[in-house]
Amino acid sequence: MSRSLVHTVDFISGDTEARQLLDELAGRLEHTPGVRAVHGDAGAALWSCSFDGGGLGRLELAAPSDTAAVVEQTHRLVATFSYGTKAEANAFFETVRQLPFSVTEIGKAVAELPLTSGLPSRWPDKPLAGVGVLLTIHHMRDFLVLVDSLLALGVEAAHMTVIDKEYPYANTHRVDAHLVGRHGIAVWRYSDLLAGIADHVGRVTAAGLRSVIMDDGGYVLPAVLRDLPNAAGHFIGLVEQTTSGIRKLDGLTLPLPLFSVAESDMKGMIESYGIADASVRNTLRLLPDEKFEGQPALVLGFGRIGSEVARVLKARRMRVAVFDADITRLVAGHEEGFLTGRTLDDLVAAHRPKLVVGCAGRGSFGLRQARLLPEGAVLVSTTSRDYEFALDELREGSAVVADRGVLGTGYELADGPGILVLGHGMPINFHYAESLSNRYVDLVLAGLAVGAVALAGGDERLRPGHNLAATNAILAESGIVDDYYRLYGPPVGGGHG
Ligand SMILES: NC(=O)c1ccc[n+]([C@@H]2O[C@H](COP(=O)([O-])OP(=O)(O)OC[C@H]3O[C@@H](n4cnc5c(N)ncnc54)[C@H](O)[C@@H]3O)[C@@H](O)[C@H]2O)c1
């Protein structure tokens, strides 16, 4: 390596625990491929390791120099690698990124998710003791609180499997480290999805149990029905948290009940605004020097999230156009005062948006429309994975395609403007971020657990197929929305008049 590589991460904990956490990492370095020896100790807060190919790794527990710029009890892990090969550097950083969360950090997250963390006291008889759970929920701190609750509701860690969607969340590696290192839960990558499902089914079947799927994007059941049909009977039911997951079930005959948090009133009416707001906030964070006020924006898809994005952008003083393939939604957008058009091409040509936010689901914007954009336009998606824009078309129609690091991908169109697809077209609220605040997402995470409990308990209202009315009824009965209102609504006995 010509220059040293450095990885730093700030974390919050007491002094003793901070040293222990890094000492554990140093212990794991001893088992990292290519490592010859590890030296150092927790007392010195400094460890080093040498690699067979000449690489040197150094791991240090440091303190931020400017304590006024960080919160109390902040420690800084500083990992440095010099001299060796790229493979050695990758192995070193792969290990040192696996820093579990401290007791202080987990305690803070638990306090921020009172509904999710309170479920075990609502159901102390461990209603999930007789099932396995296969999850594909986003790898964020809030997810760890859900996992803690599922464990407390009775699921054995050995009967749980997590599919890592491989989005670049702010804390992906730390969440992985926590799941594997602290709980011993099996984590499989999305790229090994089928192997992960097969492993889960084998493991849980061997224990004489069946499983509930808790999905976020339709990853599991369509893959099971298509590629592992013999495993379909293993699953008792499916909890799905997002619309794109529901779309992936279109046309499939569901052999089991679906608990559709995705389509529930709770999710549509309460969460969509938060996602829209988090998406716009992260867009602004990634582009701090842009000035969007007074500029034209276009929102694709005037559904639950798109309509909220349009409102948030309008409140940020952008001139907002909306487009929806569904005429009723288009009329709704028009009557709310947004600029609309019958064809997307005409709307783009007339409005020339500086910012395009895709909330439609799939293939809503391609090369033909991109050619009509002004120079420097930015495309942003809220849709799962990179399905929103026709990125292959953009690539084929570009003279230059450049990776612009955390910003995303730049496309210099051969006969059009240079544009930026922010975050490579992945959902922007997760791009090196944690989307909604924990207190906000608490309701939906608690809703997912309510679904798992209802499915595991064989609630008779949940029949094979879609169960939207039953989902709404069970969520309402669970009392979590009442609790949310008690926590964040007007004071009891308050109000005016
Ligand atoms: N980023 C996140 O945190 C997050 C969370 C939940 C959902 N999502 C995803 O965001 C997307 C939108 O979710 P939603 O709940 O608002 O869905 P929705 O079904 O309420 O809205 C989608 C809208 O897009 C319109 N549409 C579909 N195809 C179109 C096209 N080609 N051109 C123009 N309009 C089109 C539909 O008519 C509909 O009005 C989905 O892909 C969903 O999975 C993201």
Automatic annotation (TrEMBL):
SMART domains: AdoHcyase_NAD (SM00997). Its cofactor is NAD(+). It comes from the Bacteria. InterPro entries: Adenosylhomocyst_ase-like_sf (IPR042172), Adenosylhomocysteinase-like (IPR000043), Ado_hCys_hydrolase_NAD-bd (IPR015878), NAD(P)-bd_dom_sf (IPR036291). The keyword NAD applies. The keyword NAD applies. Keywords: NAD, One-carbon metabolism. Residues 271-435 form the S-adenosyl-L-homocysteine hydrolase NAD binding domain. Belongs to the adenosylhomocysteinase family. This is S-adenosyl-L-homocysteine hydrolase NAD binding domain-containing protein. It comes from Streptomyces fragilis.
